[in-house]
User: Fold this.
Amino acid sequence: MESSRDVIKNDIEKLKNITLELNQKDNELIRSEKKFKSFFNINEVPMAILSQNGYFFVDINKTFSDILGFSKEELESKTIFDIVSEAINQDGVDNWQLNGALTKHIHQKSGEQVLILWRTTSKSEDDFIYAIANDVTIAMENKKKLQEREKLYRILTEESYEVICLHDRDGIFKYVSPSVYMILGYTQEELHGKKLYDLISPEDRAAVINKSNENINIGNSYGSIKYRIRHKNGKWKWFHTIIRPIFDEKGEFLEMHSSSRDITKEVNLEEEMKEAKDMYQMLVDNTTDLVKLFNSKGEILYISKSCEDITGYTAEEHMLHEPFKIIPKEDVPMMMETFNKVLTEKKKHNVIHRGITKNGETVFVETFVIPIIEKGQIKMVMTIGREITKYYDEIKSMEYEKNKFDTLVDKSDELIMLHDEDGIIKFINSKIEDKCGWKREDIIGKKAFDFIHSDHIERIEKIFKESINKKKVFKEEVLFLTKNKSYQWFETFITPFGSDDNLGIITYSKNIQKRKEKENKLKKGYEMMNEALDMLGVCRFDMDIKTKKCFNISSTTFDILNIDKTENPWEKIENENINKNLLLIAKNKEKISYLHDKLLIRIFSSKTQKNCNTATIIIQKTNV
Assistant:
């Protein structure tokens, strides 16, 4: 058996060997760490070491520092999320850990941003994440440009509204763009190797072939032709095609390039316009109105056949006259002014004037002067004249009545408005400017409720509807907005008018601002008097003698009479004798006093009220 000394000696030897082995591993780790640091610091690839707990920067190499502009010391207290410009939620972090890649914009120290692709290793046992950061800003920009070019190419070829083709001299398709399916219903495969001319209308085929051969033979760069081509559904489409022959270096023909556009809608529109023009010409030639066309110089270009019926002159005779020859001299300036307005404003105007017929009679004509505009310029002027001699006297009478009405309305001291059933103002007299400072054009076309105080809008809207529905007149007091943004009190009568299918509202409004101001002063006076009476232990109230309705009740009234605020104070103090004398009090403006349950009651007619049926009651407690 080994002695205890031998065992201890063996154990010491083992410890020495273990220590030597550990020292060797430490030295290897130190050398490995030096090699890693050397590799890490001088590497041209941007690298960073992050803590797994919070993604704090532990170390960065020089290349990484050069990209961001931050030193190692400046990043020691920061996490990767502090320098990322876009927010990263927990899903983004999880995806980064799972996929090992994350592309985000990073803030440089200078304030600029670069797009960085982060690649990470999996979690290591030493609680660190080793990350490689590549600047992919330029690469991503180039990728974006490439995508934009590819998108543009698809638009030009696949989504173009033109069909691009290549075919030989005989019309055999060598290439057709994908847009042919959208326009003609054929796929590229269906047309490849087929003959173009077989799709063209027999009526147009020869012209298309001749045009193609002509361009090939004389070497023209471009040519164009319009023809019909068959859709896959059997219908004909109109095409406008630009053709260009392509030659080799020796001048030999290689193939024909064509670009075709569907112009079916334009051709159909031209046909419709031609038909409309023919129809218009027929209407003009057969109308009872006098239609004329003038050029920009005022020369007559056309006169309708109805000229002879209205003026007695034939169209040929009329053409020989100056434009205003058959108009009395007194009316010529008015006609000239109307024409000048049309030429200046480029808008239609009408004028009523006299005309002289061939037999010397005077007729009244209403003429509409209409500019015909092309590309923003007046090309011609059309006049449409209608004889209104029979109706002229009626028109003048109506104008007189209208002027009389307008005069009466404008002379009225009241503000008069005409509204539709929605409250839109259709008419207002000139008093609006005197009363509120607004001009008519500021008000007409807008809702009346837009000019009413917000506290009153709901009530007035309700009354408008009720007035129309019940055909009932209402009287309301309302605050109306003035031009200077203040409000004025108006007493307004809201009156419905019109038939069931065309109802509206007329309002007659009188300014009561001064009356309201007096009422407010009177109200304040009552309040001050009531406060004084309250201090003296005296109460007062006013009463309508006929209805026994009380108002302007002082606050002490309810305490002195020991009644609830909902009760009528008069009912507490009235008696049969007093009721008999109330009318006498009002008529003769007398006053009486009497005792009632230790209350001294004085009753007299209110001097401040115009209505003699109002009485004032003052009550004071007594010991009698």
